[in-house]
Amino acid sequence: MNPSFHFKQFTIKQDQCAMKVGTDGVLLGAWVDLAASPESILDIGSGTGLIALQLAQRSQASIIDGVEIDPQAHAQCVENFENSLWNDRLFCYHASIQEFTQELLEPYDLIVANPPYFAHAPNIDLSRDRARNKAHLSFESLISCSAQLLAPEGLFAVIIPAPEANSFIALAQKHQLFLRRICQVKGQPSSATKRCLLEFSFAQNTPVETSLVIENSRHNYTDQYIALVSEFYLKM
What we know:
Number of strands: 12
Structural class: alpha/beta
CATH architecture: 3-Layer(aba) Sandwich
Strand content: 25-35%
Order of helices and strands: EEHEHEHEHEHHEHEEEEEH
Largest sheet: 8 strands, mixed
Number of domains: 1
Shape: globular
Distance between the termini: 21 Å
């Protein structure tokens, strides 16, 4: 695995992080709606800091915070933030989201998360296990904390495995977070839906439903995918 991943406007060092740069994070960072010009953004479980850096590139938000529980990932996230063009707007806290929520000073206009998605991750690497294992951050905890941290007019966006989307949406509704947008993501046209991008707000509405196919065939990317992520990847 390459210790660094180079994007058009920033570089991610990832040798100390259990979860490396991946398509899920890039998709979420590119898809999030910034039309309301959020002034404050929170990335829960920042890892390398990828999504926060994407949002720093895309927005003028004056506060872009990350929260990361793993000490090595936190240290690397801080390094990636400090080495970026937007280091005056980025900060990463070393804490669990539960601890962070208890210390909340001001709510956030936008909250994003690429959360753990294995209920019982293979115990091959403890840090990687923690990063991917819902036992360390359940969807219930993520949603509950996000509802407490989110401003009344704010947005909460995540990317999760497609089979878990309906249960996640139902859990969110229990915390008065209602689906605003959903994008169903396929690897290729004939593939099953693999991921869902979900966006919530406190306002009840009819959700906007879209879909995205990443590749027509291996390494032959669709125009739709290129349009979404081309401002980040070097070779697009």
